[in-house]
Amino acid sequence: MANPKWTLPEGSATTRLARESVMGRVCENLARLDGSVSWEELVTTRWADLLSAEDCAELENQVFERFRAEAGRPYFAGCEVAVEESPDRYVLRSAAQVYVDASEFPEGVVGDGDNVFEASDVTGEVLVVSEVDLVEQLINDGVPEGVVGVIDDAGGTMTAPILPDFDAVVCLAGTVRSHLAIIAREFGVPTLMGARLSRRLRTGERITVRYATPAQSVDAYLGEDMRPRAQILEEGR
Fold it and tell me: What is the pLDDT of residues 89-127, one digit of tens each?
């Protein structure tokens, strides 16, 4: 009974810019045809007159340039492969993370995030996962016990095979509606999404995550019932 997805505001600048660019080009092409082609023809055999492969290639560059002008940075990549293949377009989130002022958090708290589901608090050792080679290694050797995975990508595709092996997860991107959140909920892995940090979390350090905090509602992203974010604490706090 939720609102249809297409009636909701875009969750990112990239999706908004893509929609604006694609719809703008389709409207331009439709106006150029000036009614000379029936709608049935357009959506069956002449759809390329509305949006051609050449249009898509041009709009891809246009969206990226508009995004970079707005955001002041390239796209965030889900893993290092994108950075290696297109270093002009991608940067790892963990390499370009914007940190908030530590004064925004109580003493001993280094960050917070949107809780996917309410669970017991977890204390564990950080393992930063942003490289495919590390995922392959963890698949082969196993994830150590007592690990809190810190993940760049809200898509979750890269880490899905090993996700159930983490004691808990902190994701630097996304919302409780993201793919990673859905997978984590299904596997019962305590997870925070869209984490804000006052500093970089480093592999090997120990943290406590307050997963006992009530879960964030999906409606919160529409400005309704935003709940307090779950805290990430330094060891001993």
Answer: 998 777 777 889 999 999 999 999 999 999 999 999 999
Give the separation between CA 150 and CA 98, rounded to whole angstroms.
Answer: 15
What is the SS3 assignment for 13? helix
The sign of the CA dihedral 174, 180, 181, 184 is: negative
What does the alpha-carbon distance between residue 38 and residue 229 come to, in Å, rounded to a whole number?
A: 52
Q: What is the CATH number of domain 102-234?
A: 3.50.30.10
- CA gap 205, 235 in Å, rounded: 8
Q: Which two tokens stand for residue 1?
A: 């009974």
The amino acid occupying position 83 is V
Q: How many angstroms from the chain centroid is the CA of residue 8? A: 17
| Three-state secondary-structure class, residue 136 | helix
CB 153 within 8 A of CB 79: yes
How far is CA 121 from its chain centroid? 23
Nearest partner of 175 among 189, 160, 191, judged by Cα: 191
Structure letter (DSSP) for residue 107: T
Q: Where do the domains of the chain lie? A: 13-71, 102-234
φ, ψ at 55 (rounded to 5°): -60, -45
Task: Tell how far CA 209 is from the center of its chain.
Answer: 20
Q: Summarize pLDDT for 37-86 with one digit per residue, the tens.
A: 888 888 899 989 999 999 999 999 999 999 999 988 898 876 677 888 89
